[in-house]
Specification:
By secondary structure, the protein is an alpha+beta fold. The chain is about 40% helix and about 20% strand. The protein has 14 helices and ten strands. Strands 1, 2, 3, 4, 5, 6, 7, 8, 9 and 10 form a ten-stranded antiparallel β-sheet that branches. Strand 3 and strand 4 form a beta hairpin. About 20% of the residues are buried.
Length: about 400
């Protein structure tokens, strides 16, 4: 911005030798301009505030607390609220949250855990073999892909929209550009809070190569159990799965597979975004996630073979995306999750952030429902209330087909 103002002033004083556009184009090509500096402006700032707050001590206490909670019931009031954040407010919101919660990066926490475990085993607080180790520098966000399953009638979409009791959403999630490692099979089940029950999210991991056989019901639980036992036998360091954990995985594995078969579910919609997570490790009392660069796309191209026909579980990347097969959401999505004791108020900084004017609360906003409503207008019999928001008009018009008369 400073360079722009200087160049603009130059052009005003020297109209015969204008140079603003030329130098701005050159500037935008420079590596230090094009690079992602979030590791400095967000992650390192978050680390500094973490040291000042003493979150590592809270982490150790959180480990003990988590272990003790397994032995007794805990009464928490859990709430989840979702907000839209305009692109120009994203940096400010990130900096605001980073002052109170550290950026949570899975790979960094894994390295920290190894160092702390080694230091604890040595007895003198020094981790042998880790001397001089510096934690890897990371961007503040991670690409997250979720492929949602539904049938040709969008049965799961309509059930979720109507908030039908125990309405489910099933998705396949991976992190990073391509699914090269584990893929998480997740099921979200809606339950009304007035019944005393909470909505739940459950998941288990499968290697990417097993997803298609699983969707085809060829990869049965017997085969998966054998694979898990063989995997644990090869890796001595990995903690073996207990009988109770295996039973829980088996229930979820078989119930999801039964739903896929009975409802004729197939890959339908994908959501792609960059997620920045904020959380004190081992402390779930306050958690935030901010999703930016959000886009939804159709998994089965119009006029082409479906993923099922091609024996794929996500869209062939070589197939071009038509304008009507993708929609780009114009806002970032902030999710604030609180798990506080009964009668405990939310932290002041959370209330101040909500009242700052940078957030617009959208009750029960869903990326899955938004994508289905926009990209399947002929099948979606009803649409969520937020689709009428004026700030979405350009995004909706860009994805609309010419036949609807709403296309730009």
């Amino acid at each position: 911005m400073a360079c722009y103002k200087i160049l603009k002033k130059h052009d005003k004083l020297c109209p015969h030798t204008v140079c603003c556009r030329y130098y701005l184009e050159r500037l935008h090509q420079l590596p230090w301009i094009r690079a992602d500096h979030s590791s400095v402006f967000v992650v390192q700032m978050s680390d500094l505030f973490e040291l000042l707050r003493g979150d590592r001590t809270r982490k150790a206490n959180g480990k003990k607390k988590k272990a003790s909670e397994r032995d007794g019931a805990q009464d928490f009031v859990r709430t989840t609220r979702k907000y839209w954040v305009s692109p120009e407010d994203v940096s400010g919101v990130k900096q605001n949250i980073a002052q109170h919660l550290p950026v949570f990066l899975v790979e960094r926490e894994r390295v920290k855990g190894l160092v702390e475990a080694a230091a604890g085993e040595s007895g003198d607080g020094v981790a042998p073999g880790f001397a001089g180790l510096t934690l890897p520098s990371h961007a503040d966000s991670q690409m997250t892909n979720s492929v949602y399953l539904d049938n040709v009638h969008l049965e799961l979409y309509h059930a979720r929209l109507k908030k039908a009791p125990r309405a489910i959403a099933i998705r396949l999630r991976w992190y990073g550009p391509a699914p090269t490692g584990s893929v998480y099979v997740e099921r979200k089940t809606h339950r009304e809070s007035w019944t005393g029950e909470e909505s739940v999210k459950e998941r288990f991991a499968l290697p990417a190569a097993y997803i298609v056989p699983y969707l085809q019901c060829k990869h049965t639980w017997e085969k998966e159990e054998s694979r898990l036992r063989a995997q644990h036998a090869k890796n001595d360091r990995e903690r073996p799965t207990s009988g109770a954990e295996l039973k829980k995985i088996k229930t979820l594995f078989t119930e999801v597979q039964r739903a896929i078969e009975s409802k004729q579910l197939q890959p339908t919609l994908r959501t792609v975004y960059m997620r920045t997570a904020f959380q004190v490790p081992y402390d779930a009392s306050v958690r935030c996630s901010l999703d930016t660069s959000l886009a939804m796309l159709v998994e089965n191209p119009a006029g082409g073979p479906s993923c099922t026909a091609l024996e794929r579980w996500y869209r062939d990347p070589s197939v071009p995306l038509h304008r009507t097969e993708v929609t780009r959401f114009p806002h970032a999505v902030l999710e604030i999750k609180l798990a506080l004791g009964e009668g405990v108020a939310a932290p002041d900084w959370v209330n101040e952030l909500v009242a700052s004017g940078a957030l617009t609360e959208v009750h029960k906003f869903s990326k899955f429902m938004h994508g289905c409503a926009v990209l399947f207008p002929d099948t979606a019999q009803e649409v969520p209330y937020w689709v009428d928001d004026v700030s979405l008009r350009d995004s909706l018009q860009h994805s609309a087909s010419v036949e609807t008369g709403a296309a730009r």
